[in-house]
Specification:
This protein is α+β, with helices and mostly antiparallel strands and about 160 residues long. The protein has six helices and five strands, in the order E-E-H-E-E-H-E-H-H-H-H. A five-stranded mixed sheet has the order 2-1-5-3-4, sandwiched between helices. Helix 3 packs across helix 4 and helix 3 (about 80-90) packs across helix 6 (about 140-150). The longest helix is centred in the last third of the chain and has 15 residues, at about 140-150. The protein is globular.
């Protein structure tokens, strides 16, 4: 079945069965490999993308649920003000170790900062708790989210 999608601001079409996970359409059909497969059960967060501005797990979201909605992936973050701030903080603080989970971590962090520009430490921890980092870079992830929030508020 042909699906009309809006991905990173561009109209795209994909051929997929309605139940096909969005992740597989992004990666296999459209060649957008920034979004990663982690667990396949919406538990680790590696596959996080935004659907109408909200972070979702693309491994468990059927493509039919995304049709007609705005999908934003890690590939669009370099052109997004909040995405740029988060990515810059990530690099500055050396967050990534192996890097596999980082696209999902960044997408979750961007979602948090767009909905809550001044999150408390507890709010950062709660928002990021659904994303697993097997390398254990949680303190650096937390610090990078906090730094990005401060920079977006004009605090140095």
């Amino acid at each position: 079945m042909t699906m009309n999608l809006k991905i990173n601001g561009q109209a795209r079409t994909a051929e997929a069965v309605q139940e096909t996970p969005l992740l597989w359409v992004l990666r296999d059909e459209l060649g957008m490999c920034g979004t990663k497969f982690g667990c396949g059960m919406a538990l680790c967060g590696a596959c996080t993308v935004h659907l109408d501005g909200q972070p979702i797990r693309s491994c468990s979201t059927p493509i039919s649920a995304a049709a007609g909605k705005s999908i934003t992936t890690i590939e669009a973050m370099s052109g997004d003000r909040v995405g740029q701030a988060v990515q810059s903080a990530w690099v500055e603080l050396g967050v990534a170790q192996c890097g596999y989970c980082q696209a999902g971590q960044i997408m979750t962090a961007v979602g948090l900062l767009k909905s809550n520009p001044k999150p408390s430490d507890k709010q950062i921890d709660e928002a990021m708790s659904g994303n697993i980092c097997r390398c254990g870079t949680y303190p650096r992830i937390h610090a990078a989210v906090k730094l990005a929030a401060q920079r977006l508020q004009g605090v140095k």
